């Protein structure tokens, strides 16, 4: 028996269950100023939980923005963990550094790399990372998955924001390039051997998948 859809009141309650503080609010204000759309607070709380559950020491972020998602990730990571965050906009990364500084995060805990993700990711170390979070060019999501599977250690997790893409992914009539790319990613993650997937209805949708310790066929 199918459950009835969650009502807006309950959704809002869940989305704001973990409240954001002044540092995150300031990071969101910076995002508004430069036209960046950061992930929602519910997705941020989910990322923090994942980083904490993994006891993440090394995390890759695709799409720095003004530091909203980075703050959530860093707050869940180990105290000695390092976030490697990639963005094509150096100005956005400058604003993100302000957010990290306001949160008292030591500079050595964040490695910012300005550049296109598909130019930067191949230079990172295979099997070194606990968590890869992608919130970049939606048409490149499939390529990000390829890189994430290489970068993650066994037991690591990949996460993609905007997995529901403003309710367009679930609507087969929507055929724009971004929607099709995300829809194909969602289907691929669900059928890829060696991944344990889940699609979380937080924010605009958070697609997560664990890289199994051994291939499912073994």
UniProtKB/TrEMBL annotation:
Annotated SUPFAM superfamilies: S-adenosyl-L-methionine-dependent methyltransferases
CDD domains with a match to the protein in the record: AdoMet_MTases (cd02440)
Pfam families found in the cross-reference section: Methyltransf_3
Gene Ontology BP, a term: methylation
InterPro entries reported in the protein's UniProt record: Cation-dep_OMT, SAM-dependent_MTases_sf, SAM_O-MeTrfase
Molecular function via GO: O-methyltransferase activity; S-adenosylmethionine-dependent methyltransferase activity
UniProt keyword S-adenosyl-L-methionine, yes or no: yes
Keyword vocabulary terms for this entry: Methyltransferase, S-adenosyl-L-methionine, Transferase
Protein's name in the database: Putative O-methyltransferase YrrM
Organism per entry: Nocardioides thalensis
